[in-house]
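Lab meeting, action items carried over

1. Structure of the two-component assembly. Owner: GW. Status: complete.
Input record:
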Amino acid sequence: MSAITALETFDIRFPTSQHLDGSDAMNPDPDYSAAYLIIRTDAGDGHEGHGFVFTIGRGNEIAVAAIHAVRHHLVGWNVEELLGDMGATWKRLVHDSQLRWLGPEKGVMHMAIGAVVNALWDLKAKRAGLPLWELLSRMSPEELVSLVDFRYLTDALTPDQALEILRRAETGRAERRAQLLAEGYPAYTTTPGWLGYSDEKLVRLAREAVAEGYTQIKLKVGASLEDDVRRLRLARETVGPDVRIAVDANQRWDVEEAVEWMSWLAPFDIAWIEEPTSPDDILGHAEIARKLAPLPVATGEHVHNRVMFKQFVQAGALEVLQLDATRVAGVNENLAILLLAAKFGVRVCPHAGGVGLCEAVQHLSMFDFVAVSGTKEGRMIEYVDHLHEHFAAPVDVHSGAYWPPFAPGAGTEMVAGTLAGYVFPAGQIWSAPSAFSQQ
Amino acid sequence: MSAITALETFDIRFPTSQHLDGSDAMNPDPDYSAAYLIIRTDAGDGHEGHGFVFTIGRGNEIAVAAIHAVRHHLVGWNVEELLGDMGATWKRLVHDSQLRWLGPEKGVMHMAIGAVVNALWDLKAKRAGLPLWELLSRMSPEELVSLVDFRYLTDALTPDQALEILRRAETGRAERRAQLLAEGYPAYTTTPGWLGYSDEKLVRLAREAVAEGYTQIKLKVGASLEDDVRRLRLARETVGPDVRIAVDANQRWDVEEAVEWMSWLAPFDIAWIEEPTSPDDILGHAEIARKLAPLPVATGEHVHNRVMFKQFVQAGALEVLQLDATRVAGVNENLAILLLAAKFGVRVCPHAGGVGLCEAVQHLSMFDFVAVSGTKEGRMIEYVDHLHEHFAAPVDVHSGAYWPPFAPGAGTEMVAGTLAGYVFPAGQIWSAPSAFSQQ
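Predicted assembly:
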């Protein structure tokens, strides 16, 4: 019997805007940040749970305040009880009636709960001595179904239907696990495509991406049609006809504008158009998808919960579902989303990049392959090659693939030096920012 | 030329959970609260702008932090410039690229921006010496259109179409203004219907409501079917056949459950079913509306922005649109929503109650009647009779109607004693809570 003794929070920020890493049509100068937490216990086993919300700078302190606001659901409570029934724990956090008003189930409050849920999973996986993907892949279909809150889902997915999907995938788990260890999980890279990069840098990085074994790259679009056409022509010339090129408008357009703009880009053989319009606009995405077919529409990094994803798949509004590790309420809700994707037959290609999103989300895709959808067909995880050095178990990405992590936990733990050095505004990086630009 | 000198924030909470005022199927014990702000200037005219986010207790401090996070867009800036182009000011606040990540345009961050926008409108109206409804009703169609951000709306409503609606309503503004002053704006009351009240209290309050001139009351439902049927029978017996009874499930059901449950309540002649399921579930509401027709479906108090409302009206998912003064990003976004309602021909019956929602939202309905939809047909504003004494200009509701306020401003200013006494946790009410229960 042990108890949670503390929920510690940290406002961690990286001054990425100095290099225009991460720049796109809607986010010209992000400072990649993490509203971070550590859950400590009195178990004496040395294990802590780490989790975070990814943000892009200003307002990170609001997410920190939101994480702090759920501490009464954790501190002083029995660890084994909380971790032993993660379905019940999730509901207790998400359905706190007063905090729920701040969403419900969306925005800062929901993301903060996601960080806490993920920190609990990190702790649970560490106590089990397993990486999260492996821990989840070993759970029975019944245990997995018990993690999901089916409220608001049953018109599209019932517990029985979820059970059926998971039971079907029970066959072959061992083979797929072996396959994963041997082949890795496909990755694509966004590194060449940021809007703030020059044409020369785009070409150089695209060439490097192909050399490194990537079969898909992604370019940001939506600020200037003329620039987009020039950059796509350059990219297509550089990578040749066999490498896929996806484009990402980061919510820049209205519905008709998206259709019109994409008619100019479609000739460059586009793998998908990502976030063509508001992430809230299910009907708008459905209309764009109909008009651009067969060009696939992708979205998800800003889709705020399972109820929205339910409608996206019901309406045929996306073909590529880009779940995010820290936008929805953590592992449990992402399991619901993986099940919806499996039921409706859409491909899951998670959003990553940012701070630690690659480290976190790989576990979900690998688990999905082993125990949910049972396929990697048309699926891949986004990859961006920065800020990994700040994590205790950085991703292993090479030869165009993510390689399964072995370290126990959910991948969400930063190294201690980063927590000390990048804390805002007291950390060394913020009191002496020139240290960063010389890196 | 004057400048904004300060944006002051206050965490104001009322211990309403002690009396179960405001109790419903999802919110058993709310402590009605306000994340409150005051904008001060160096104009020397004595005017301040007041605004707030309504919350129900825990987490109010997160909304306060979010209000604080936009101060760099106000403090030090020229007041006349900000107030002179409220369309541009709105966009600057909502499209702050880093803060936008925390929504986008939803949850805590969006509500906080709404509070700030409303405080600016409060200041603008006070400087003009007019109540907000009158200030808005005197603006030209072109000025009104300039307040709206049409991004993500143009597939349903273009600036030209909005202009056409407003120009059509320009005819007869003076007559409708006179009519409003003579007749007031219809109100309905939720006072009798809270779930935590006994049958005796329900009957007594329902009888009083009829005696006071209300032609519609509303009952909370969704916790127990047996209780709901008994309470509805009692209410119907009490008010007779000519008073309308609406019911409100506060998001309690899944889609099929809503249809099934309402089949038991429909025989009591229901005015509308409000929030039958998740406020995010546009397609679910549409399905419920189809199956329950002609029983109207109402929703809106938790619908987080204009993009969601756009889809609700596009999908025929609601017949009664319940906008809220502090859920979306303030007056500007509510103008967009009023225009969508006018375009699609749905009735607007605003959500009120809470803390100061009645005081704030009446301005929008009255303006809508004078200058947007031009009709009160089937429209009314919710009324709950508590906490009004905390406002500088409490609503004037009698004879079943809201009577137009004359005090300059947006209705969002609390009295100074309340700001001092109810601030959390230092205020007297929280250090000596027994003072409240003796009131």
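2. GW to write a short summary for the group page. Key points so far: Residues 168-412 of chain A form a domain with the TIM Barrel fold (CATH 3.20.20.120). Chain A has two domains: 4-130+418-437, 168-412.
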